[in-house]
Write a structure and sequence with these properties.
Pfam families: LRR_1, LRR_8, LRRNT_2, PK_Tyr_Ser-Thr. It is found in: Membrane. GO terms for molecular function: ATP binding; protein kinase activity; receptor serine/threonine kinase binding. This is PROTEIN NSP-INTERACTING KINASE 2-LIKE. It comes from Salix purpurea (Purple osier willow). By secondary structure, this protein is α/β, with parallel strands linked by helices. It is built from 13 helices and 20 strands. It has an 8-stranded mixed β-sheet with strand order 2-3-5-7-9-11-13-14, with no helix packed on it. A 6-stranded mixed β-sheet has the order 15-19-20-18-17-16, with helices on both faces. A hairpin with a 5-residue loop joins strand 2 and strand 3 (about 75-80). Helix 9 (about 395-410) runs antiparallel to helix 10 (about 430-440). It is elongated. The termini are far apart.
C-alpha cells in the first residue's frame, strides 16, 4: 500500500515537472530558466548605454523581454538589437539558446571574436553581425549550421582565410564578407549571392573583385592551388564590364526614383514632424502618439468608448499605458482635404491657446490614412466637459438643444446647474459666468461674428469680454425686433386688407 502511494506521488511530481518545463522552458540545476541565464550572460558582456536590454534576471522566462521573440512553446527563437549603440563583446553563452533561429546585431560597435559556440545552434537560419568591430578569424564551426541560409559579417575587422569548410554549406543562399581584412585562398562557396569586395588581400590581387556575384572562378582556382588563367578571360572581362555598367545605370535610376518619392512623402508629412522647424506651426511640447498606442488605449476604437461625434470625426475615451485617461478625436477621413485642414487648424489653434479654462491639447497622431487628436479626459458634469460638448455634440439638433439650454440657464441666472456637484460651491461664480459668455460668443450662428482664438484667450483673461458681450446682446435684440416687426406687419396688413390677401394668394400660385 505504501509503495503504491509512493508511485502515485512520484507520478504526480513527474507530471508537474513535465508541465513546468513545457510551460517555462528547461531549468538549470539552480532552478533558473537556462535561456534567461544565457541571455543575462549576453547582456552582462555588452555595454548598453541606453538600457535597451532592460531584462529581469529573476523572470520565469524571457518571452516578455524587449528585443527577444519566443515560440508558442516559450523558447527563444530570435534575438534582435540592431542599431542600439551596443559595445563590448558577444558572450559564448549564446550557444545555449539552442532554439535560436535569427540573430540580428548589425550596426552596433561590438568587438572581440565571433564566438564559435554559434556553431552549436542547429536551428539558426539568419546571422547578421555586419557593421560592428569584430576581429579575428571567422569560426569554422559556422559550417556546422545546416539550416543557415543568410550570413552577413561585412564591415568588420575579420582577418585570415575564409574557412575551407564553408564549401560544405550547400543550403547557404546569401553570404556577405565584404570590407574586412580577409585573405586568400577563397573556397568555392555555393551561396547564390557572395560578396567579398573591400578585402585588400583578396581584391588587391591580380584577380580582383567585382561586387556581389557568385565567387569569381579565378579565386576558386586559387583555392585549389591552380591559378592558370582561363582561355575565356577576355570574354569574361567584357561581360563583367557590361554587367557592371548596367548595374550602375539601374542603381542611378532607382536612386533618382527614391529621391523623388522621398521628397514627395516628406513634403506631405513635414507638418507632423515635431522635431523639425516649421514656421507656420509651433507644436510646443505636444506628444506624438503611435497609432497602435491609441488603438490599444481605446480598445480598438470600440463603440463602447464612444463619447461624442463632431463634424470631422468621433471622440473616444481611452486609457494610456501609464493610466492617464484621455479623449481621442479621430477624423473621419484623414486623406480628405477638409479633414486635413481641420486637423491642422485645430492643432495650431489649441496648441497656441494656453489657459486654465480651455481644454488643452495633449498630443496628436498621424499615419498615411489617420489623423487623431488627444485631449485630457474631463469627467461628466464638469464645466469644461459641458462647454466642450458644444464641439463634440452628437448631432446638429443636439448641439442646438444644448446651446439653447445654456442660453436659458444663463438668462435665468442658474449657471450652478453647469457645475459639478462635487465642488460644493467651491468655485468662482464670476469666472463661471465669464466662461459661459465666452462659450456663447464662440457658438454664434454666423461664423463671422465668432471671436478668433487669440481674442478668446484675451477675453478669458478679462480683456474685452464685457464689450464683446454687450455688442452681441445688442445685435441679438436688434435681430429679434426686426423679426417681430416684419412678422407682425406682414400678417396685420394681410388681415386688415382683403384685397392684399387676394393679391398674395394670386402671387403664390403657379406662373
Amino acid at each position: 500500500m505504501e509503495a503504491s502511494k509512493e508511485n502515485v506521488l512520484f507520478c504526480c511530481v513527474a507530471s508537474f515537472i513535465c508541465l513546468w518545463t513545457t510551460a517555462y522552458g528547461e531549468l538549470t540545476p539552480a532552478g533558473v530558466n537556462y535561456e534567461v541565464e544565457a541571455l543575462m550572460g549576453i547582456k552582462n558582456s555588452l555595454v548598453d548605454p541606453h538600457n535597451v536590454l532592460n531584462w529581469d534576471e529573476h523572470a520565469v522566462d524571457p518571452c516578455s523581454w524587449a528585443m527577444v521573440t519566443c515560440s508558442t512553446d516559450n523558447f527563444v527563437t530570435s534575438l534582435g538589437a540592431p542599431s542600439q549603440r551596443l559595445s563590448g563583446t558577444l558572450s559564448p553563452s549564446i550557444g545555449n539558446l539552442t532554439n535560436l533561429q535569427s540573430l540580428l546585431l548589425q550596426d552596433n560597435d561590438i568587438s572581440g571574436h565571433i564566438p564559435s559556440e554559434l556553431g552549436r545552434l542547429p536551428k539558426l537560419k539568419t546571422i547578421d553581425l555586419s557593421s560592428n568591430n569584430f576581429s579575428g578569424q571567422i569560426p569554422g564551426a559556422l559550417s556546422n549550421l545546416n539550416s543557415l541560409q543568410y550570413l552577413r559579417l561585412n564591415n568588420n575587422s575579420l582577418d585570415g582565410a575564409i574557412p575551407a569548410s564553408f564549401v560544405n554549406m550547400t543550403q547557404l543562399n546569401f553570404l556577405d564578407l565584404s570590407y574586412n581584412d580577409l585573405s586568400i585562398p577563397v573556397p568555392p562557396v555555393h551561396a547564390k549571392t557572395f560578396n567579398i569586395v573591400g578585402n585588400p588581400l583578396i581584391c588587391g590581387t591580380e584577380h580582383g573583385c567585382a561586387g556581389t556575384t557568385p565567387v569569381p572562378q579565378s579565386l576558386a582556382l586559387n583555392y585549389s592551388q591552380n591559378s592558370q588563367p582561363s582561355g575565356n578571360s577576355k570574354s569574361h572581362k567584357v561581360a563583367l564590364a557590361f554587367g557592371s555598367s548596367l548595374g550602375c545605370i539601374c542603381l542611378l535610376v532607382l536612386g533618382f526614383g527614391f529621391i523623388l518619392w522621398w521628397r514627395q512623402r516628406h513634403n506631405q508629412q513635414i507638418f507632423f514632424d515635431v522635431n523639425e522647424h516649421n514656421e507656420e506651426l509651433n507644436l510646443g511640447n505636444l506628444r506624438s502618439f503611435q497609432f497602435k498606442e491609441l488603438q490599444v488605449a481605446t480598445n480598438n476604437f470600440s463603440s463602447k468608448n464612444l463619447i461624442g461625434k463632431g463634424g470631422f470625426g468621433n471622440v473616444y475615451k481611452g486609457y494610456l499605458q501609464d493610466g492617464t485617461v484621455v479623449a481621442v478625436k479621430r477624423l473621419k477621413d484623414g486623406n480628405a482635404i477638409g479633414g486635413e485642414i481641420q486637423f491642422q487648424t485645430e492643432v495650431e489653434m489649441i496648441s497656441l491657446a494656453v489657459h486654465r479654462n480651455l481644454l488643452r491639447l495633449y498630443g496628436f497622431c498621424m499615419t498615411t490614412t489617420e489623423r487623431l487628436l488627444v485631449y485630457p479626459y474631463m469627467s461628466n458634469g464638469s464645466v469644461a466637459t459641458r462647454l466642450k460638448a458644444l464641439e463634440f455634440g452628437k448631432s446638429t439638433n443636439q448641439k442646438g438643444a444644448l446651446l439653447d439650454w445654456v442660453k436659458k440657464i444663463h438668462q435665468e441666472k442658474k449657471l450652478e446647474l453647469l457645475v459639478d456637484k462635487d465642488l460644493k460651491n467651491n468655485y468662482d461664480r464670476i469666472e463661471l459666468e465669464e466662461t459661459v459668455q465666452v462659450a456663447l460668443l464662440c457658438t454664434q450662428s454666423l461664423p463671422s461674428h465668432r471671436p478668433k482664438m487669440s481674442e478668446v484667450v484675451r477675453m478669458l483673461e478679462g480683456d474685452g469680454l464685457a464689450e464683446k458681450w454687450e455688442a452681441s446682446q445688442r445685435a441679438e435684440e436688434n435681430k429679434s425686433r426686426a423679426n417681430e416687426f416684419s412678422s407682425s406687419e406682414r400678417y396685420s396688413d394681410l388681415t386688415d386688407d382683403s384685397s392684399l390677401l387676394v393679391q398674395a394668394m394670386e402671387l403664390s400660385g403657379p406662373r
